Amino acid sequence: MTSRTVLTKRLSRDTLTTPQTGSVAKGRRNTMLRWGLYAILILFALFYLMPLFVMLTTSLKSLEEIRTGSLLALPREITFAPWAEAWSSACAGTQCEGLRPFFWNSVLMAVPAVAISTVIGALNGYVFAQWRFPGANLFFAAILFGCFIPFQVVLLPMAQMLGLMGLAGTIPGLIFVHVIYGIGFTTLFFRNYYVTIPQELVRAAKVDGAGFFRIFFSIFLPLSLPIITVSVIWQFTQIWNDFLFGVSFSGPGSQPVTVALNNIVNSTTGVKAYNVDMASAIIAALPTLLVYVVAGKYFIRGLTAGSVKG
Amino acid sequence: MEWLDRNVPKLVLAPSCVAILVFVYGFIAWTAWISFTKSRLMPRYELDGIGQYERLFAAPRWDVAMNNLFIFGGLFIVISMVIGLALAIFLDQKIRAEGVLRTIYLYPMALSLIVTGTAWKWILNPGLGIQEAVRGWGFEGFTFDWLIRPEMAIYTIVLAAVWQASGFVMALFLAGLRSVDTEIIRAAQVDGIPTHRIYSAIIIPTMAPIFLSAFIVLAHLAIKAFDLVIALTGGGPGYATDLPATYMYAMAFSRGDLGQAASSAMIMMLVIFAIVVPYLYSELRPRRDQ
């Protein structure tokens, strides 16, 4: 950073927070404003953190302590028993094996679905951005529209179709559904990213005799890390968190973790174990939270570079 | 061989186009067709006019669902936008620890609505939740039992949905604020224009496309909101918090009434259509800068 940019930064900071310096009263008012600003920001932070805090503390309390203590109190005695129960013995409906089998169902479903839809989206986006043909815009609009349909409108025929294909109630069936309805977004991401790459590059490569795939693998793929990150995070979050397709199209052996979580929470057998519910909710949320904490900033950066500006 | 070379791009695109054609447009057509038949437990294909739509609009439960959609959708979109914009502007004042705050505001978006619903159901539970906690602090008369009151339960869904999505709106707006030309802002500052005027007269008007994007994303979330209702209230008490999405699901999978499921899905589709088509049109319109 040169000294000039530092100077302008400092200038803009001063002018933005204290528009007219000089009068002491004004300065004091601005200090007050500044404190108020921080107070509001921190209050909102507490609002966003509160449910996570409550989930975490509740999951570490015994049922006895939950009944007698306050929702917002820290646990007096920390117990990990609810976590163990949530993972391996809580009852989802009639099945009492905890979240573990369903967690693996979600992994088996999400990983291939994310990979396949990202690869397809990259190739589609590459065509739409760099290999335009008459009518391409119409196809792009048609695919884009698919992003926005309420899935309720395809639920009934998809149930029939999965039955016909012999995929009803299976994990490959869920992968299929997530790939189909994920293509729209992944295509949009890659197309918006690849249009920013100059077309002269492709033209020059064509002159040199490089073909469609050669240009993709040697020019576009190496530049694609930011948008691959966006696509993978988006798809993983969507698919891992999906409930509608999971509850509509899965069978007893293929339910994803969100469906199992809902079943555990709504299990009516025995005593209502709030601590187990909360531990289950955190377990179901951990993978997407982790992805978000590790790679979230790349997501926002990539997204704002692509889809927001259109 | 030369033909193949020339048509590789189209061949690459073809499977996706066929899939979208069948699984989006074909399926919409199928649902539309079924909505004009007397289908009950099994699909029947003889057309029967608009009987299903008449039944749908005569059903009190659908009435509640549509009302709830407008209450929920309206409040959810407006509150999320207001909070999102306010937080973005506040965070844009060279705040210390901005990164930490941003992360905190944004993380709910990473959660499944089922997780969000489960957490808020526990917090709002009148027996052991926040009501009891506040009473424990000495406010004996404090009541916060919206979750079990039919006329108030829909607002708990608004609360949880705003909690989930407002941080995301903040991120959109913040990105927008940062992309405004700093030269213009600096010029305005040099001219002594007060900060609030700089925002209201210069910065916010240039962010119109972001308002539109945020609106589309939120409207889309509102109409599809299904998981949250299932996890938070299960549509109850009674069917007080039904939304079109839960109505459709109940008809399709627990009532075995395909005709009603199809016609309610078509209405949802039309509502989204009315919002999204103008947006897509503006997105795809040829631009001068391309």
UniProtKB/TrEMBL annotation, chain B:
It is a multi-pass membrane protein. The chain crosses the membrane at residues 12-36, 69-91, 103-123, 152-177, 198-223, 261-281. Pfam families: BPD_transp_1 (PF00528). It is found in: Cell membrane. Residues 66-279 form the ABC transmembrane type-1 domain. Keywords: Cell membrane, Membrane, Transmembrane, Transmembrane helix, Transport. Belongs to the binding-protein-dependent transport system permease family. This is Carbohydrate ABC transporter permease.
